[in-house]
Amino acid sequence: VFRSSGLTTLPSILLIGPSGSGKTSLITLFERGTKAAATHTSQTPIAVECSLPVGAVASSDKYRSDNDPTNQTHKKFLLIDTPGHGKLRHHALASLTNPQNLKGLIFLVDAATLSAGDEGLRQTADYLHDVLLLLQKRVTGSKAAKAMKEIPVLIAANKMDLFIALPAALVKSSLEAEITKVRTSRSKGLLDSGIGMGDAEDEKDDWLGEMGSTSFKFSQMEEFDISVEVLGGNVVGGEGPTVDKWWKWISERL
Ligand code: GTP
Ligand code: MG
Hints:
The protein is an alpha/beta fold. It is built from 8 helices and 6 strands, in the order βαβαβαβααβααβα.
């Protein structure tokens, strides 16, 4: 998928998130422009070529004139859909460890499943914790990994058309609180299993964010050159799709 037809030179944005959050719906919306298509749960990653809509200017193009032919090519990008099912996530994580011209990562969540005590909240926090830890390790890790640092992360809070959806600010604080729990239980797990015993370095490597902090905050990722933003929207429902904040985020990173 990633190496075919010379598309690899295009800047790419990776779409990750739990099953059912709306990743494939979002891809079909971006591809078609007006309306998302019906979807089935995804089994494999799919790369789709998208173009920025008229009016959105990629940041690298800001100082180019309208007549500059490179404008055209720079407005195209690849959006890579990944399966959210727990057993298929290795696809998504593999594209993170071996990125092709990756400009950003969108972690799409279903904002209607993130209330306190909801199983969706736990699962979403679990997955997001692992993705952020992988990004953090790339920064702290090998030389090869260092070259790929500074991957900005957008947490796209989807399904805002549903009245039970949490607003973006609450999506942020709920995920931070739940990731705090994941982080604590993971480090306990390591201690119980004996892994990391007496090896402070190992423990440090598997701890997300600021060492010694009691609460996890997305802002702790800045120390690792990982910016995290939370923006709301909806792909279907309501009075039509509302994805302009996400488009803007993408256009600023191409
Ligand atoms: P996997 O492929 O299993 O990882 O799931 P996915 O993230 O690709 O989810 P998909 O796009 O298949 O969407 C799952 C369901 O959510 C579909 O029934 C969509 O119609 C619905 N959906 C997607 N976006 C929205 C939204 O903004 N609002 C509402 N109400 N439903 C949505
Ligand atoms: Mg899908």
